[in-house]
TrEMBL record:
SMART domains: AAA. Keywords: ATP-binding, Nucleotide-binding, Transport. It holds the Pfam family ABC_tran. InterPro entries: AAA+_ATPase, ABC_transporter-like_ATP-bd, ABC_transporter-like_CS, ABC_Transporter_VariousFunc, P-loop_NTPase. GO terms for molecular function: ATP binding. It comes from the Bacteria. Residues 302-324 are annotated as: Disordered. It comes from Streptomyces rishiriensis. Gene3D superfamilies: P-loop containing nucleotide triphosphate hydrolases. This is ABC-2 type transport system ATP-binding protein.
Amino acid sequence: MTSSMDAAGPAQESAIEAYRVGMEYRRGWALRDCSFRLPAGRICGLVGPNGAGKTTLLAITANLLKPTDGTLKVFGMAPESAEAGRRTAFLAQEKPLFRRFTVAETLRLGRELNPGWDQRAAENIVRSGNVPINAKIGTLSGGQRTRVAFALAFGKRPDLLLLDEPMSDLDPLVRHELMGTLLAEAAERGTTVLMSSHMLTELENVCDFLLVISSGGLRMAGDVDELRSAHVLLQGARSNDGEPRIPAELAGHTMVEYRTSGRQATALIRPDGPVTGQWQADTPTLEELLLAYLRSPDAPPLISPEAHAPGKPYGFGGSDAVAA
Ligand SMILES: Nc1ncnc2c1ncn2[C@@H]1O[C@H](COP(=O)(O)OP(=O)(O)OP(=O)(O)O)[C@@H](O)[C@H]1O
């Protein structure tokens, strides 16, 4: 548990604190210098392009990988500690389950391996998808296997649930249902969820916290509403000299993205004062914000005070903090 104060106010327990975490594979660095804090009880979307380092970060948190550099703590403990392991569940992309086991045997194994196991919660998830309890895992469809993997993760009653693109092979109705189960569980038990996903619109309805990474580096982190309201989406007429250059009146603001299309110009900025000029100004939706950062890998990073690992110096240049 943390006990320090930071710019966000009185410290709340951290589910994850990462300080300068780096992971180098043979081919190069998959994560570099990642420092952030995920407060307990938040539902956090982990977003980034293919190969950004999302699975690597989740695997380090779940103690499946040791970082090459830096430290990461789960509820203040090393991921390899028994206590962190007991409090964390990881639903991996490949959903590793024993193909020869039946669904019932799989849940029994979950019960034997996990002291706080909740058989009813696990069975309910399996039953509500009409997955035959005596069928072998190898005979199930991809979506049915995902449901069993979800049941295993939920049955463990974790305090931190790590999900790696959990919904990619589920039909829209099942996605909706399992998301509902996830949110109800998180609300009832205060479970912290860290979930990687490429489905930006779905994240909008589910997440209240965000971590955005690209090329192994942290680009944006913090409370969703705080991050959204730190930005302004501007739409207006493109200057009629035909040049796609950024209008002079926007020069004093932090520019995340400037695009032109036909006679329209769109800019996503972090305003450093009032915006002048003929612009329609709106708070971006989460999807607009994420798309702008994903399209602009060179935009300066933004880490909100709440997402700063407490007491740690930050290596980011430029304006990297949302006003508290
Ligand atoms: N075991 C490994 N050995 C070598 N390189 C690896 C290994 N695992 C991942 N990488 C590389 O590390 C980088 C990050 O991979 P990672 O799987 O963490 O990305 P990701 O954000 O989860 O991607 P995706 O959205 O495609 O799932 C990639 O360049 C990948 O090729």
